[in-house]
Write a structure and sequence with these properties.
Helix content: 40-55%
Low-confidence stretches: none
Order of helices and strands: HEEHHEEEEEEHEEHHHEEHHHHHHHHHH
Distance between the termini: 34 Å
Largest sheet: 6 strands, antiparallel
Structural class: alpha+beta
Amino acid sequence: MTIKPNRYLDWLPSSAYAVTEPVRVRAPDLLMANAPLAAALGLPPEWLRGESAAQRWAGNQLPPGAQPIALAYAGHQFGQPVPQLGDGRAVVIGQVTDAQGNTQDLQLKGSGVTPFSRMGDGRAGVGSVLREYIVSEAMHALGIPTTRSLAAVTTGETIARSFGPEAGAVLTRVASSHLRFGTFEYFAHRGDVDALRQLADTAIAWHFPALEARAAPERYLDLLDALVDQTATLVVEWLRVGFIHGVMNTDNMTLSGETLDYGPCAFMDTYAPGQVFSSVDRGGRYAFDQQARIGHWNLARLAECLVPLIDDDSDRAVAAAERVLETYPARFEDRYQAMLANKLGLDHTRAADVALAERCLGLMARQGADFTNTFRQLSTASLDDPGAMAGLSTLLGDTQAANDWVVAYEHRARETAERQARMQASNPAFIPRNHQIEAAVAAAESGDITPAQHLLSVLQRPYEAQPDAEQYAAPPRPEERIMATFCGT
């Protein structure tokens, strides 16, 4: 089998990439392999087995047909524009077609220096590779658009990081594409309108083919409209499961709507709206409750790039883009309210339901309740069991306010059919908790990959009751709490 020729070479201008071979590693060894994903991508089973698999996914012996390139992009990092970033430690080697007929990129992450490395070593460590592997596959199982992980390979080499030497590793990432908001910014910084138009047409063809029938320039405003809708939907999904991305820079926002880059990400244990884990987010710019606002801000930066494509008259183009951007808050709020209604098991949203949901979140915040487990206990509690209702009140603080909320919720929930089924489809029992990931990483660094495999197995069925896996649903003990997460560079 050969992989498909790298589509970026035909679809984008040559300034959008640099042909870059992976840097060979000394002694690659296969750490984890995703056989179900390989099957869905139509890859031969032997491509994930043995020494040849380790050599292949380390970049030493690329699959037939591979044409490795590092992609260029720019971005706003913590609000500050950076005209050139790019793949500093990754190469897209080509594409395959999955079982649904969709084209998917294969990218090696941690494959060595590229022209965009900016003084970096181009490598990744076992910790960051395993974190992305586990969390991205967990996100997929949760039903949230995401990049995927096909294989993780150790390199037999040591890399230098701020906490000391770390074993090197390479991740094979799968994505609908690696086009980003920051790809538009790269060409906008250079004033290259022709390249912007080519990129926009590529994004439409790859991710929004229904817009191809629209004439220019209307289709470029339609592209912005589609991305507004897509971003609002994605952020609501993050909030549904308590996910904090940690680095919502524009270069980490995909045009495909997939969650990208799991560096300092984290899932909340205790519910705290302003929760921040990322060690580099010192001002809380990307806190849990700021993600919706930042999604809007990032879209505005994207819209600035599209202005010359929307209308030759810049004033008219800006006014048209602003009208589309102004629809974001309402779209987000509609989806957010529907999401909260589902988490409470309500079949539709009434005005009073929003206040009911917000009262619940307020009680959780004051009590320091576990975000995931609180909603899961709500999902399993029977309205006809006084003990279960009393337990909910205790869970929320056992105050008069908590008792009043339980009474109000019970009254409203009795009007809803299939409440528990709806809730259990929206509220996972298992998420990739920070302390469990860290324990799995520590074991892997000591040569034992079994804890990571067990954790990943549980996370593949996040909405199912798994009585023999209850330890994975437990919040961290005080000494296990992870207060900060770190980028892998």
